[in-house]
Design a protein that fits this description.
With 211 residues, the protein is of the alpha/beta class. Helix content is 39%, strand content 14%. The chain has a single domain, classed as Rossmann fold, CATH 3.40.50.1240.
Length: 211
């Protein structure tokens, strides 16, 4: 039994490019983001991976990334489950603001704390702890049982919803998770043991040769 779980942050979005806080806002992918997602699909196919089911959020940048990955793998017809629980962290009052403008308004130290602390939310938004409070129950109830049953699972989501999940999978602490960066469009591959812990982890590198 493979017990395969692959995580992928969406490709570059229009607001990533503009350095805007995005959260639950719903911009599309850029041309680069589309290509990042397609490359991820080609890499996974070249490495021999296949999927039985995919999970994604209710936001189009993640949904489109999921669709493009599966399309490159000729898996467009597999089951795809969309869930708001996998949405990006809600940035509240920061949503739509340029990150430099936010630093000028509230100060670099305060904005850094909102972005990187585990349990301090921005005004009107979610902390990473809040995000984990919805991501992890969904993972335990819906995603993990499919992995443990032998389904090969893709999760195409967002930087912070995936950070919340990786924190548990990699047994990171609220302190160590602060430094974790997840690149757009780079698949992270896990194989789980029978007790649901991680047996193997690998990150498919941007430098994998394409044929």
């Amino acid at each position: 039994m493979e017990r395969l779980l692959v995580l992928a942050r969406h490709g570059q979005s229009e607001w990533n490019l503009k350095k805007l806080f995005t959260g639950w806002r719903d911009p599309d992918l850029t041309e680069l983001g589309v290509e990042e997602a397609k490359k991820a699909g080609r890499w996974l196919l070249d490495q021999g991976y296949r999927f039985d089911v995919a999970f994604t959020s209710n936001l189009k940048r993640a949904q489109k990334t999921c669709s493009l990955i599966l399309g490159e793998m000729d898996l467009a017809d597999i089951e795809v489950v969309r869930a708001a629980a996998l949405n990006e962290r809600d940035y509240g009052d920061l949503s739509g603001l340029n990150k430099d403008d936010a630093r000028e308004r509230w100060g670099a130290e305060q904005v850094h704390e909102w972005r990187r602390s585990y349990d301090v939310p921005p005004p009107g938004g979610e902390s990473l702890k809040d995000t984990a409070a919805r991501v992890l129950p969904y993972y335990i109830e819906h995603i993990l049982p499919r992995v443990m049953a032998g389904d090969r699972v893709l999760v195409a989501a967002h930087g912070n919803s995936l950070r919340a999940l990786i924190m548990v999978l990699d047994r990171m602490t609220p302190t160590t998770i602060a430094s974790l960066e997840i690149a757009t469009g780079i698949p992270i591959v896990y194989r789980l043991r029978a007790d649901t812990t991680v047996a193997m982890k690998s990150v498919l590198d941007r430098d994998i040769d394409e044929h």
